[in-house]
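Our working data are protein records whose layout never changes between entries. An example says more than a description, so a record of this kind follows.
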Amino acid sequence: MKNALILKEIFRQNRHWESPEEFFFDIKGIEYQRTLYFSLLPALQKRQIISIVGLRRVGKTVLLKQLIRSLLENTPPEHILFLSFDEALLAKGVTLVDYIDAYLEHKAPKHGQLTVFLDEIQYADKWQHILKRYYDTQANIKFVISGSSSLFLQKKTTETLAGRIDEFFLPVLSFEEYLSLKRVSTVLIDAYQSAATKIGDVVVDAHRYDAIIAHHGNDFITHFDDYLRYGQFPELLDIQEREAKQRYLEEALFKKTVEYDIPRLFGVEKVDELKFLFSIILSEAGALSEPTNLAREVGIDGATVKKYLSYFEQSFLVYPLYNYSKSFRKSRRLLKKLYLGSSNFLSLFTDWRDNEIAHRRMGFMVENYVFSLLRQQFRFCSFYRVRKDEFDFLCTHDLRDTRTFQHIEVKWRERIDVRDIKFLTRVAKKHNAPATVISRATHALSFDTAVIPAWLLK
């Protein structure tokens, strides 16, 4: 009976064996290829296990099915197995081994390369040891796995799958990906692609920037506002009503991750504490944060707060940013701020009809967005605070060479006064390094300071 049910589930999930159009039909956005897709294609040809991690609903399943569609161009369908796991599939003594063995015995060809895709693998007990056994004994099987928790796809693989696994992170939609999926005018997309820049890149055509701001600045700001509020998850782009967008964020992301995933994966029993702590973080994101103060607000001990914060970080919900120190180790003992895995999370508890609240929230959303870009671009990021003076970000690949430091301040306003960035430019000059101000619509270049609109970053 158990084997029959396993085989029934395998055939249900692998409709590409008989009817590929049905297998891909229910996946929205299957035609659009995320940036990460092009990095994964060559990795499919390597022996190592591919692991894809990221927040819930960022598009990991779509990405797996796009890779399957690519393989089907030159691979017989039966050589590819796809399984997406949840609690029901692994109940009553059914294991990951049962599914893989059933496929190998009843459907897989006896010869040739096989590719096994396992979606949300963190729900399968001892999956690391299981994959290691197949990897070491059956060289013809290539595994591609995905998951929504970094703990289960990083720390537990350190010893078990050392040298056998390559990890890739799928972030929320970039602004360029959002523009493409929203199908905005090609003129706007071309303008973005012609001028978008990374922090630290030298902008050689200042006139192009000025022309884009003059002709398209208002359109970009409108789309950027929507992107920061409700545009970083692919499925949100198809939802029109604001209330429905909020329900999606609450049901598909907040409740599913904080109320279900984290308690189950990490063994948290007091879910209400977990939820309350996350709501506090949302309300105070970007402010100086200490576990002791958070513990006092939530009403639980500091050790538990630290543990919960680590769960949020390992689930891609929250990222800490520490005050700068020449010693990377020492910086971990200094003041820190907490940033969010997506600025869209702030829309959970924001009334956008209140202009004062909306303006304040939008300023932090831009700051959170800039941090997410910097975190992907640089090896080290911190904020820089000396007594009461502070600027938002200091980033580098080499802490020993101050000339490589990037000094960044976010000013989401119409006009930027030189006095507002005095501390930023003074520290940058001391380090003999450039300074960058991220603005709302202002662009300016000088010998040592660049002002760039946030929506022209990439």
Q: What stands out?
A: Residues 43 and 408 are 35 Å apart (CA to CA). The first helix runs from residue 2 to 13.
